[in-house]
Amino acid sequence: MSAVIVATGRFSPIQRALHWLMALAILAMLFIGVAMVSTIAPAYLTLVSIHKPLGLAILLLVIARIVIRLRRGAPALPRDLPAPMRLAAGLSHLAFYGLMLAMPLLGWAMLSAADYPVKVFGLTLPPIAPHSDALHTLFWNAHRILAFAFFALVLLHLGAALFHLLVRRDGVFQAMAPGIGEPGA
Amino acid sequence: MPPEPRPPGRAPIAPLAGIAAVVVVLGGAFAYAGGFLSPSRLSPVKLVNAFGQPASDALGHRRNHAKGICFTGRFDSSGQAAAISRAALFAAGASAPVIGRFNLGTPVFASPDDSVRVRGMSIDIRPNQPGEWRSAMINAPIFPVSTPADFYALLLASGSKDQGAMPRFIAAHPGFAPFGAWATKGPWTGSYAEERYNGLNSFRVTDQSGTVRTVRWSMLPAAPVQNVDPATLKDAAPDALEKEITDRVTAAPQRWTLQFTVAAEGDPTADPSKPWPAGRQTIDAGTLVVDKIEPEADGPCRDINYDPTVLPDGMTTSDDPFPAARSSAYAVSFNRRTAEAADYPRTETYPETGGTSQ
């Protein structure tokens, strides 16, 4: 009998595919965002021109992801996972879904409140907020501050995932790991 | 691969160190991307701060071209620019409302009108369909420097307390001379309506067939130009230009012709401090009609960012590095001033020394 109880369920292939696709997209988005506001070089325009459509893509993907998550659920965590870690896992996942939804909407609303046209894939999106100094400031501050919070959460999530993989070895990482086949089977 | 539960009794030092290393490397890469490890990177914040705007004066105002007055009107296309750009606003018969701004090229909001050499016009042409175009132009015929980095150096030199800083800058940047000559010896006018406003930066336009050309543009005044001795302007009220344009537009709409100049092969499209040779093809794209002036505090131009990279389909940026730099810096200025809106009250009570009556 081992010291650690191993979880055997895995997320469905579509959930794992969405997770890793969005992981790449979100990391790219955070790096592009922090880089673009740091420079006046021509790369600024290139980065902004990626930031907007990628943000919209993340918004559409997270909506699909939430629907799938609500339908298919998630594999259970190991029964012996300490309660604080269990709570942290649940809260961090809620925070991820909230940020994935909020960040693109805040970016879009921020530009709307600035009366700045939002163009993606050659289309001009309708404004989702009225032209307002106060709203612009609110959305801009939220977008900026939450971006750093989002990156901090990504680091925490990565650290926790690796902790499950390398230290606890409890199958939690394998539940979301890419590739086919069932772990622990 | 099935996970092997760790045998009890062995401290997981190596895995924990590995995890910490991964997190630190990714965090460091993020800090690098954001320029936090690169103090020499020319950020929009550094550029905007280099204008040296007095903190008490800055609140709620643009960080450069701080003083200005709003206008509204329309752009009536001649149809001639449809030959070089497929943008809907250049189609024959097209007409679109415009929100614009006359302004002074100074970071100091409290500047008297006579004290500022560079005058500007910003336009935001807003067709009912998508295809908005924003541009900010100045009356200088040429830009002082070739690159955004040189512009930053110019700001530092001109803001320096060191008397030798500007002479040193000019000596090190011979390309500054034509602008310097205009600034010191060029003609002055007594009205925003008599100025020719030049876009200076180059952009690319694409026609219906997909052919791409590089252009610059200017707004040519219809009003007769009367050059004045700048010394006489000093006798005028601090807001003399604002009062004059208000009275003039109230009496009759004022007009400008939007003229494109098309670059030929080999013209210096990336350097706004270099003119293109005379005789280049020009196209009169249409007429800007200004029919109403409003003070900025309550005016429609106040909360518009005249970002020169807001372009309709049929226009794009070129190899000129300035529009990107301007877009990046204007965003910082816009973010700051909108956050300070309470310091620039909407119903402005002009100081008694002010010339604009309300």
UniProtKB/TrEMBL annotation, chain A:
> For the Cytochrome b561 bacterial/Ni-hydrogenase domain, which residue ranges apply?
10-179
Query: What topology does the record note for this protein and the membrane?
Result: Multi-pass membrane protein
- Transmembrane segment boundaries: 20-44, 50-68, 89-111, 145-167
Q: SUPFAM superfamilies recorded for this chain? A: Transmembrane di-heme cytochromes (SSF81342)
- Gene3D superfamilies documented for this protein: Transmembrane di-heme cytochromes, Chain C (1.20.950.20)
What InterPro entries does this protein map onto? Answer: Cyt_b561_bac/Ni-Hgenase, Cytochrome_b561_oxidase, Di-haem_cyt_TM
CC cofactor:
heme b
Q: What does the UniProt entry say about where the protein is found?
A: Cell membrane
Q: What is its main location?
A: membrane
One short Pfam name that applies is Ni_hydr_CYTB
UniProtKB keywords: Cell membrane, Electron transport, Heme, Iron, Membrane, Metal-binding, Transmembrane, Transmembrane helix, Transport
The family annotation for this protein states: Belongs to the cytochrome b561 family.
Name of the protein: Cytochrome b
Q: Native species of this protein?
A: Endosaccharibacter trunci
Taxonomic path = Bacteria, Pseudomonadati, Pseudomonadota, Alphaproteobacteria, Acetobacterales
UniProtKB/TrEMBL annotation, chain B:
Q: What InterPro entries is this protein classified in?
A: Catalase (IPR018028), Catalase_core (IPR011614), Catalase_sf (IPR020835), Catalase_SrpA-type_pred (IPR024168)
Q: Which CDD domains match?
A: srpA_like
**Compositional bias segments (type: Basic and acidic residues):** 337-346
Q: Domain Catalase core, which positions?
A: 48-358
PROSITE patterns, from UniProt? CATALASE_3
Task: From the Swiss-Prot or TrEMBL record, give the protein name.
Answer: Catalase-related peroxidase
The record's family statement is: Belongs to the catalase family.
Name its species.
Answer: Endosaccharibacter trunci
Which co-factor is required?
heme
Any idea of its EC number?
A: 1.11.1.-
Catalytic class of the enzyme: oxidoreductase
Q: Name the Gene Ontology molecular function terms of this record.
A: peroxidase activity
Q: Which UniProt keywords apply?
A: Heme, Iron, Membrane, Metal-binding, Oxidoreductase, Peroxidase, Transmembrane, Transmembrane helix
Q: What does this protein do?
A: Has an organic peroxide-dependent peroxidase activity.
